[in-house]
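Hi there, hope your week has been kind to you so far. No rush at all, and the record is pasted right below.
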Amino acid sequence: MRLKLEKISEGFDEVIIRYRHMNATVQAVSQMVQASGEKILASDDDGSQFILVDTILYFESIDGKNFAYTPNEVYQVNQTLKNLVYTYGKKGFFRSAKAMVLNIYHIANFKSHSFGRIEATLDNGEKVLISRKYALKLRQLLEEGVRDED
């Protein structure tokens, strides 16, 4: 497969995928392009707005309300954590605790803790605990990523 990038001075950005047969690689590239720039409706004190899913560090459920945390802001979202994992699991979101869905792409480093828990430091320096129930899922995700790179 060849890759050709072309810089243009005017007009709209465009991605054209040419293929003879649809395969897993072509499908993955297509899905990635379609999902880039995906937004979610969220609200804060200023009202409702769309925010980029890729900027979200994690979702958390507090007192029956769900919140999206970005590096600088906190927004309320109206989707359940279960639905968020289902919808954005392919974008790196996974259940890290009963009340939290974490974006694996915003984890800076890990540290093992007692009783099988994992402490994750996020890009913004915030530390979150991944419960032992969900730590195995994180390990599986990391192993899959390593296999994909081989």
